[in-house]
Amino acid sequence: MVQILLNGNVMNAARRAATRGEKIEYRDTLMPGLVIRVRSSTPYFYWLSKSKKLKIGAITSFVPDDLEMLRGLIPVLKNAHKEGENLNAIVNEVVLKGKKNPEDARIAAQEKKDVEDGKGWTFRMARDIYLENVKAENRKRSYGNDKSCLGCEEGGEIENDFRDLLDMPMKSIQVKDLSTVLKRIKKRVGDRNPKNPNAGSSSAIATYSGIQAVFKYATLPENSELSGLDQNTARMLNKPRKVDFDKNDPRGKASAVAILANVKQIRKLLTVDLWNEDVKEIYKWAIYIQACNPSAPYGQIGLIL
User: Fold this and answer.
1) What Cα–Cα distance (Å) separates residue 279 from each residue in 248, 264, 274, 286?
2) In this model, does residue 230 exceed pLDDT 60?
3) Domain identity same for 227 and 127
4) Which residue among 62, 67, 96, 188 sits deepest, i.e. has the most Cβ atoms within 10 Å of its Cβ?
């Protein structure tokens, strides 16, 4: 057993000790209870006390910058242990889900337990219950639209976009989680349709509407106790925007909107530019036809180039 301030060098020393087959413990002097144990080819972080031994995770799951988070995890585990909470569930939130705030990990673990105890819904549960309600009300159009854009098809592309959200308790879902889903959809569909800049946005907007409907249903007074959700997080989610060119910006619309010429420009076109050898034949015909159009208002001749 070695009492030492845990840092990157100590983590490397533990790895080297493991390759040599040594059995050793490095106990942190800054946070009693935080230990690196070497007992096999892979060193592990542990919480060790007189009455409790809990494996946190392999040393390979962490970097030196995570040490402060691990130090903060120890008192959270101590308090959770006193309350009889599931310590492994808290550790899983840190190691498997990447929670960097130990208290957030504890809250997330408790919210998952609430779902298991029938005191809350996951997003998947909320979505399916909402859709069943829409179907029961014979709202066929809403049912079809929402079902297709909320990841209901098992193994489908949209289900994969929702992969981190589906089994998350509604109370745990944050705006960034919802935003991630929309970004995935927008990118996936947009990459497939490079010539249509709004393809991804249109799909993301459809899913945005579906998410809004699910959260609204889950927070209805008659449902909030079952769903465990009393605040509509989705209200803070920004609606995806379609590409909208500025009115004074000719990019993207020059081929569709007429370019209007004034009198001086028309005179120059007819007397100089039209006869320039560098001007393509199609431009000459466009200028000639529209310049000779008697129905065009004088000074407002459209030159569609």
Assistant:
1) 26, 19, 7, 11
2) yes
3) yes
4) 67
Q: Which long-range contacts (CB under 8 A, 24 or more apart) does 107-110 make?
A: 107/172, 108/169, 108/172, 109/85, 110/85
pLDDT in tens, 153-176: 888 899 999 999 999 999 999 999
User: Does any domain span residue 250?
Assistant: no
pLDDT digits (tens, 9 = 90+) for 234-269: 999 999 998 775 555 554 444 444 455 566 666 676
Domains identified in the chain, total number:
3
Task: Report if residue 45 sits inside a domain.
Answer: yes
Structure pTM?
0.68
Evaluate whether residue 65 is within a structural domain: yes
| Edge-to-edge strands, sheet with 34-38 | 2-4, 24-28, 34-38, 44-48, 53-58
Is position 249 within any domain? no
Structural domain of 220: 123-236
Residues 100 and 143 in one domain: no
Q: Where are the beta strands (DSSP E) in 33-100?
A: 34-38, 44-48, 53-58
